[in-house]
Amino acid sequence: MFIGLDLGTSHLKGIVIDDAQNVCAEASVSLSLMRPKNGWSEQNPQDWLDATENVMASLANKVNLKKVNAIGLSGQMHGATLLDKNDNVLRPCILWNDTRSAEEASYLDSKTIFRNLTGNIVFPGFTAPKLAWVRKHEPNIFEKISKVLLPKDYLRLWLCGEYVAEMSDAAGTSWLDVKRRDWSDALLAETDLDRSQMPTLIEGCEISGVLKKTHASKWGLPHGVIIAGGGGDNAASAIGVGVVKAGDAFVSLGTSGVLFAASDEYQPDAASAVHTFCHALPNTWHQMGVILAATDAMNWFGQVLNSSAQEMTNDLGVLKAPSKTLFLPYLGGERTPHNDAQIRASFINLDHNADRQAMIRAVIEGVAFAFRDCFDALSSTGTKINQLVAVGGGAKSEYWVQAIATALGLPISIPVAGDYGGAFGAARLGMIAYGINRYDVAISPKIKHIIEPVMSLHDDYLSALKSYRETYKVLKAIG
What we know:
The chain has two domains: 2-234, ATPase, nucleotide binding domain (Nucleotidyltransferase, domain 5); 242-419 and 446-478, Nucleotidyltransferase, domain 5 (2-Layer Sandwich). Helix content is 36%, strand content 21%. The strands form eight sheets. Strands 1, 2, 3, 5, 13, 14 and 15 form a seven-stranded mixed beta sheet that branches. Strands 18-19-17-16-22 form a five-stranded mixed beta sheet. Strands 4-7 form a two-stranded antiparallel ribbon. Strand 2 (11-17) and strand 3 (23-30) form a beta hairpin. Helix 10 (233-240) packs across helix 15.
């Protein structure tokens, strides 16, 4: 048996699978965000450990864990967890969707060495500009930093006592030479850090350590359970749905939105705002278009309407042409293709006919248009997408998936019932680290059905997309 732990933004999820990859048990614990100032987003790392305790206890109550061989880790990317020499956490973790370091990111990005070595724009959400912000605004904390760990790697430290990161997550720090798959001393020096403050690098399918005996005894696991390197949340999700070779892709409707395409080679185009990262398997890379608010936009609007996302999407009927009302889902800025930390969300074209349903559809369509922006950005780099699978909580809404399919002009496959996200992919990486052939593990899921684009509405979507893009320009101009 194998366990996958996925440290997400809103939940920590655990899953247990058997040797045939059947799900034996799963558990989840909610996590809260702190937003002390506009554009800030933080979490207390102790909450991650408490959540893991609860998840593991829940899994142990559902299934005998004595046969577990390995644990894989997945997690939200880019977060800066700062430790002193005694492994004490120095401040709350600054998360991926925190935009306070926009000024520092712009300054670092102006140095050509960053794009040359990382293949990416230095986005405000990445880790390096966060450290530049801490150095400037919290110098007393910066001076005490002994180690900088990404969220799941802080969880790893607690689980097995090792300072280890893997390539897919490290690629989102702006300190990794992504082609060489190694820390860059020159990039670290740009933020007054050095290699001694970084964790050791391994591949996601390699062994990073062994579960501490105290944890094993408490949770009913055997001694000697290995911890796999794991992957950043999107890379792990790709392992979960078998997106591991060129032409394979998935669309993720989670808190953020991701259009993810696997690649057999390193082919960056930083100017497109496409992310080019290492994959969780050796000698593979991937490209991502990332939007900062996918289900997050729907959840926000649900709070306004005092309704759940399911309630809002249940009665939409068949797909319709885009509403005259437009919604731009930039609640906390945007990554692809704009690299704009300051832009904010807007409804436009509201009139007396803009009722509850029209506004819900506008939110769905706005996210679909944002995915089309990502698709065009990936296509501009030469990336081809042959097949597309939908994952994430938002994929439960067929209306939403069909809106995205129609905006892209591509069919989207829906897997059979089951969780193929980060936790499942992490468990698969645990299997590979344990010694099972990766080609037997990272296979595509069985498909429940394929949602086809409504091509009779495709031109309507492209026309609305044009207005959507023009609206962004106006919003940016007026600040």
